[in-house]
């Protein structure tokens, strides 16, 4: 009897400790026009709380985050909390017309959700058109009080947000491209924490400085917030140790270069172990499709050691070539998950849904465009179109028909030589991508294995694919066509990396696996915003489970209306 009482008392103490460690963290976002000066000219942008990037949100695992968004901009607005699981809080996920109708100009909406079973670096951004070019910021989830990191404790933590800058209104850039069918203009600069760096005009003093002390350890929380660019990142004469990706801990991996696709995050430990001095950090584009114009510039910041002479010029790192796919592939495939670490989820072995999904570029009819067609994009030859009268989540919750069709296919309609560009571009049946709002319906708690196969119908490039609400295990990646007989032998079922955004290799494939344990509607899409409006997306409708704890709750009363 005493033993039972003792165990009960211990359980109550643990429960009380858990509850006491959780807090409600509240913020207000005022989204409005902001005039900033970059690259020799003034530009009106959309920004949060008058800053670029927007505010960094800091919480602990288990906290509840409440963000009141006041849209004082001239555009419709939503905010997406990139990588957050949103367990039973799908109404707060944020993608426009997927989980909510947009917040109109002059409107407001409160996002409220718990940060459960994940910690590390995530971020938030606008999820309407190209507005996330300037509406974004870091979301940092630290361990609960008293829970250490599974790596040496850093002396300081520093968010590093990599972005893109246009000397233009990004809404106009997107609108013009969609209206004419032409490729949108490339960005004019890359940025580090909003600063372009001293390689650009009128930017000698617009450069990010990181002051360090010799011997100290710094946790750099690197976020690729760029709109359309995968990026290489280096610091001259310094190695970095990767300890997490997409808010999932990894086996420590020492590297001199970090590679990130839009939407991805990488946490690295930087030890200030070089001679006292100044060293450039730099980022430039990784471009896997050599036939596409791109921004060939580089952004720089400076790592300045305490006591460094002010007259000495910083040392510049030797950057990879823009098309250095071997370096990118090595980085993406060498990382492994920290099996048994905090919030580690073992790989599920029983699979309920097998999917083979092609990622295509094609064309669609466009009467207003220059040549009568525009670029289009698709998954399994279905080019996704957002609904206009009601969000997908509302249609699911209220059982409204006619908003979407539950017929997204598990395989492409035509089997072909996916990565042979000399053949595929001549096949007109592959070029045309029909438009639809087609979704895949999943049973609650079902396990999905998906082969993502890049194609070479129009161009061959790496596609960063982001899945809302879920992390997935990356079992394997490779080049060419996926071989269902040979390639499963390469699967890492022991300690694969866990991500929410995967760069499907140029002219290649990736295999992911996840458990659909959260009811709601969750979009999967390319995080190159040049491709998302073209239809490179689909959505998963995860049905309710058998209990209240596995059932989507009703929408909040202030949910915006269409």
UniProtKB/TrEMBL annotation:
Function of the protein: Lignin degradation and detoxification of lignin-derived products.
Name of the protein in question: Laccase
Matching InterPro entries: Cu-oxidase-like_N, Cu-oxidase_2nd, Cu-oxidase_C, Cu-oxidase_fam, Cu_oxidase_Cu_BS, Cupredoxin, CuRO_1_LCC, CuRO_2_LCC
CDD domains named in the record: CuRO_1_LCC_plant, CuRO_2_LCC_plant, CuRO_3_LCC_plant
Taxonomic source organism: Salix suchowensis
SUPFAM superfamilies to which the protein is assigned, alphabetical: Cupredoxins
Location (main, coarse): secreted
Domain of life per record: Eukaryota
């Amino acid at each position: 009897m005493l033993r039972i009482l003792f165990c009960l008392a211990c359980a109550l103490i643990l429960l009380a400790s858990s509850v006491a460690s959780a807090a409600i963290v509240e913020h207000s976002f005022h989204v409005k026009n902001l005039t900033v000066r970059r690259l020799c000219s003034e530009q009106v942008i959309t920004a949060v709380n008058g800053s670029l990037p927007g505010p960094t949100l800091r919480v602990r695992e288990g906290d509840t985050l409440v963000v009141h968004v006041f849209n004082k901009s001239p555009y419709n607005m939503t905010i997406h909390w990139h990588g957050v699981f949103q367990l039973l809080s799908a109404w707060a996920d944020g993608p426009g017309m997927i989980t909510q109708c947009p917040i109109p100009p002059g409107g407001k909406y409160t996002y409220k959700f718990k940060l459960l079973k994940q910690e590390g670096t995530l971020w938030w951004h606008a999820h309407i058109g190209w507005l996330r070019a300037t509406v974004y910021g870091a979301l940092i989830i630290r361990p609960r009080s008293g829970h250490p990191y599974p790596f040496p404790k850093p002396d300081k933590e520093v968010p590093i947000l990599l972005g893109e800058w246009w000397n233009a209104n990004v809404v106009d850039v997107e609108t013009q491209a969609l209206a004419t069918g032409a490729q949108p203009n490339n960005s004019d600069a890359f940025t580090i924490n909003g600063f372009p760096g001293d390689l650009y005009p009128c930017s000698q003093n617009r450069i990010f400085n990181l002051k360090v002390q010799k011997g100290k350890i710094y946790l750099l929380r690197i976020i690729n917030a760029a709109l359309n660019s995968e990026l290489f990142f280096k610091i001259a004469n310094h190695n970095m140790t990767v300890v997490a990706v997409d808010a999932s801990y990894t086996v420590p991996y020492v590297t001199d270069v970090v590679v990130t696709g839009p939407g991805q995050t990488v946490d690295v430990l930087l030890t200030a172990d070089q001679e006292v001095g100044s060293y450039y950090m730099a980022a430039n584009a990784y471009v896997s499709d050599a036939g596409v114009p791109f921004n060939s510039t580089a952004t720089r910041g400076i790592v300045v050691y305490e006591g460094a002479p002010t007259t000495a010029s910083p040392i510049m790192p030797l950057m990879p070539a823009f098309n250095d796919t071997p370096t990118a592939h090595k980085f993406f495939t060498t990382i492994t998950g920290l099996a048994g670490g905090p919030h580690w989820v073992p790989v599920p072995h029983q699979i309920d849904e097998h999917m083979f999904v092609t990622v295509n570029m094609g064309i669609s009819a466009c009467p207003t465009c220059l040549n009568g067609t525009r670029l289009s994009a698709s998954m399994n030859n279905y080019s996704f179109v957002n609904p206009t009268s009601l969000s997908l989540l509302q249609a699911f919750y209220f059982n409204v028909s006619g908003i979407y069709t539950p017929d997204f296919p598990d395989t492409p309609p035509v089997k072909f030589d996916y990565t042979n560009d000399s053949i595929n571009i001549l096949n007109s049946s592959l070029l045309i991508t029909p438009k639809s709002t087609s979704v895949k319906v999943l049973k609650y708690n079902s396990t999905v294995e998906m082969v993502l196969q890049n194609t070479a119908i129009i161009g061959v490039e790496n596609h960063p694919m982001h899945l809302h609400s879920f992390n997935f295990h990356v079992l394997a990646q490779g080049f060419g066509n996926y071989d269902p007989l040979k390639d499963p032998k390469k699967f890492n079922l022991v300690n694969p990396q866990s991500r929410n955004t995967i760069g499907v290799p140029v002219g290649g494939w990736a295999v992911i696996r996840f458990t659909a344990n959260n009811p709601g509607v969750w979009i999967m899409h390319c995080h190159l915003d040049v491709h998302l409006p073209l239809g490179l997306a689909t959505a998963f409708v995860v049905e309710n489970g058998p209990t209240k704890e596995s059932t989507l709750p009703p929408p909040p009363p202030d949910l915006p209306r269409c």
